[in-house]
From TrEMBL:
Residues 242-257 have a biased composition (Polar residues). Residues 3-107 form the HPt domain. InterPro entries: Bact_Chemotaxis_CheA, CheA-like_dim, CheA-like_homodim_sf, CheW-like_dom_sf, CheW-lke_dom, HATPase_C_sf, HATPase_dom, His_kinase_dom. One of its GO terms (molecular function) is phosphorelay sensor kinase activity. One of its GO terms (cellular component) is cytoplasm. This is Chemotaxis protein CheA. One of its GO terms (biological process) is chemotaxis. It is an enzyme of class 2 (transferase). Residues 270-511 form the Histidine kinase domain. The keyword Metal-binding does not apply. It comes from Aquitalea magnusonii.
Length: 655
């Protein structure tokens, strides 16, 4: 039951507008700290905050009005020169905006907010009275309890107090039993149970956040109840301790509305009208043909009408897809605050530069990108860049530079996070992986520098010897790769010791339509994502070589393992595979042996309701109306135990 009876629509409009306004205010506050004398910037901040206060007053949200009013008084003193911007003053202001954001999350559930934390209000009053806030300028990261350090994405919405692991207590299917093959790290990322359980709403917040961080859209449809689990109200201590991840994640339920340019809607409407006219023409031609009129002119008109319909449907499809496209800047605007808070906590000087904010991406993908980018920005600040003292000793400027860019390259979006920090040493990563028992010495010796850099994505890998509230558990980068793969994307790393690191993410423009290559194995058609396909080759049995007991093929001086699709599916092959698809999966390249090809197609994936077979992303319909399963190659490969799917040389060489 909502506390805003009859005003739900006004509340949603307020939250949509104010959330964007608050993100803009946060970014401008970070800029104001760099340019404290910029009066125009301060006036923009004042106007944005005043607008939020006015909307809260119209909805009678007293606690928010009270908090905003005190913060406005502080802005007014800054504007009049009675106060000056210092890092300590900015900490208090950002604490206040963080509380306002938490209040947005509560309002999004239709609940009235409670009074703001007394510590924040007292800090505001102290600054207004000309006293220095009683908090450390740059607190050092402290060892984190399991509930906080389990995953940064959960930290943003969960209370710092340890909460019970509620995966088994929530209604619906058992998470571990249903999804262990899809996101095996989810079970290990859950907070450990505490001796004193928290109240029910707070206890259910952690699984809701963890599920939202790692589950792809089809799986969410299998667990509709999880969408209605109320988020926990963040405890005041989370603000007092300045958990930096709070700026990177949105509080409250996922936004299910979208803003669309009316020009795009007009285009959809016009195309719909033209399709209606073409449909009428086809109906007329159908009637003529049924009446026996099958002369050349009638058949020619039928062919023209079908061709016209094909063009119009393609244009309509593109126009509808564009209505889902949103500028990625709406996501990027969260990260300057995140980088600033974390850098201050770690005693570092960091400038985050954004570019390409106007690049458009499917709205659902933008939402799913939030957690990976939060991890990458945090890692760049924590692991990538050095402290001012270390940078000066290395001959660098004290302030480090992190760049977050986005651009469209063909039919993909390229996102890059670059820092000018200490970079990564491949040999050090190799030694760390051996030390943690993630790989053995023999495997490590066979890794090149590129593969060594990819070790940071392994579950449990971390270069930190001690666990802190920021990092050390080896969860973050594993979450990054898993989420990017769920979006059919790729992630690549380039790093030079002493110079910095660049992490590149390549994503399709949309997940609604997936380009696939349809292949056959055991007389059954299957679709594999075209984004993973590098080329198609013919398998020559004489070219197969045994390397460490496993069949491989050399393609342009690159030794590639050979896998059969039938073997990956656990089927007995019905014939010798004659074709191979050279595929790129994350950091691995391999050849997928198949029986034959059907061709390339653009498909719409439909999730399978109530079931999720291993290695199957969904299903689609082929041109002849038959059902074709769309394979999740990452899932299939992760289930391989080293023999499953491995080609036996005898299967490929003619007797």
């Amino acid at each position: 039951m909502s506390d805003f009876g009859g005003m739900e629509e006004l509340l949603q409009d307020f939250l949509m507008e104010s959330t964007d306004l608050l993100s803009d205010v946060d970014n401008k506050l970070v800029e104001l700290e760099k340019r404290p004398e910029d009066k125009a910037l301060l006036n923009d901040i004042f106007r944005g905050f005043h607008t939020i206060k006015g909307g809260a007053g119209f909805l009678n949200v007293g606690p928010m009005v009270n908090l905003c009013h005190r913060t406005e008084n502080l802005f007014d003193k800054l504007r009049n020169g009675e106060l000056h911007i210092t890092p300590e003053v900015m900490d208090v202001i950002l604490d206040a905006t963080g509380i306002v954001r938490d209040m947005f999350g509560t309002l999004g559930q239709g609940l009235m907010v409670a009074d703001a934390d007394a510590d924040v209000l007292n800090a505001l009053d102290a600054v207004l009275a000309g006293e220095m806030p009683g908090k450390a300028a740059a607190p050092a990261p402290a060892p984190a309890p399991a509930a906080v350090a389990a995953a940064p994405a959960v930290q943003a919405v969960a209370s710092p107090a340890p909460a019970p692991a509620p995966a088994a207590a929530t209604d619906g299917p058992d998470w571990n039993a249903l999804h262990q093959a899809i996101v095996p790290q989810a079970a290990t990322a859950q907070p450990a149970p505490a001796a004193a359980p928290a109240p029910a709403p707070a206890a259910s917040a952690a699984p809701a956040a963890a599920v939202a961080a790692v589950v792809s859209t089809p799986v969410q449809e299998l667990l509709p109840a999880a969408e209605h689990i109320p988020a926990a109200k963040p405890a005041s201590k989370a603000v007092a301790n300045k958990q930096p991840s709070s700026a990177g994640n949105s509080s409250g339920p996922q936004e299910n509305t979208i803003r669309i340019d009316t020009v795009r809607l007009d285009m959809v409407l016009n195309l719909s009208g033209e399709i209606g006219l073409t449909k009428n023409r086809l109906t007329t031609l159908r009637t003529e043909i049924l009446q026996g009129n099958r002369d050349g002119n009638t058949l020619r008109s039928l062919d023209e009408a079908i061709s016209q319909l094909d063009l119009l449907v393609g244009d309509l499809q593109n126009a509808v897809m564009k209505t889902r496209m949103q500028p990625i800047g709406r996501l990027f605007q969260k990260y300057p605050r995140l980088a600033r808070d974390l850098a201050r906590q770690l005693g570092k000087e960091v400038e985050l530069v954004l570019s390409g904010e106007e690049t458009e991406l499917d709205k659902t993908m933008i939402e799913d990108l939030n957690d990976p980018l939060v991890h990458l920005v945090r890692n760049a600040v924590d692991h990538g860049v050095e402290s001012p003292e270390e940078r000066i000793a290395a001959g660098k400027k004290p302030q480090s530079l992190i760049q977050l860019t986005a651009e469209q390259v063909g039919d993909h979006i390229q996102i890059e996070i670059t820092d000018d920090g200490k970079g990564m040493n491949p040999d050090a990563l190799r030694r760390k992986a051996i030390e943690k028992g993630l790989i053995d010495q023999e495997t490590a010796n066979g890794l090149d520098e590129k593969q060594c850099l990819q070790l940071i994505f392994m579950p449990g890998f971390s270069t930190k010897d001690q666990i802190s509230s920021v990092s050390g558990r080896g969860v973050g980068m594993d979450v990054v790769r898993t989420n990017i793969q769920k979006l059919n994307g790729r992630i690549d790393i380039n790093s030079l010791p002493g110079e910095g690191t660049r992490i590149s993410i390549s994503l399709p423009l949309t997940l609604a339509i997936l380009p696939v290559l349809v292949v056959r194995a055991c007389n059954q058609p299957f679709a594999v994502p075209l984004a993973m396909v590098r080329e198609i080759i013919t398998i020559d049995p004489n070219a197969i070589q045994e390397v460490s007991g496993k069949p491989t093929i050399v393609v342009r001086d690159e030794i590639l393992p050979l896998r059969t699709l039938a073997g990956l599916l656990g089927w007995e092959p019905t014939q010798k595979p004659y074709f191979g698809v050279l595929m790129q999966s994350a950091e691995k390249s391999f050849i997928l042996a198949i029986d034959s090809f059907v061709g390339r197609d653009d498909v719409v994936i439909k999730p399978l309701q109530n079931i999720r077979p291993k290695g199957v992303a969904g299903a689609t319909l082929s041109g002849d109306g038959s059902v074709v399963l769309v394979l999740d190659m990452e899932d299939l490969l992760s289930s391989s135990d080293g023999t499953n799917g491995q080609v036996r040389t005898s299967e490929l060489i003619s007797v």
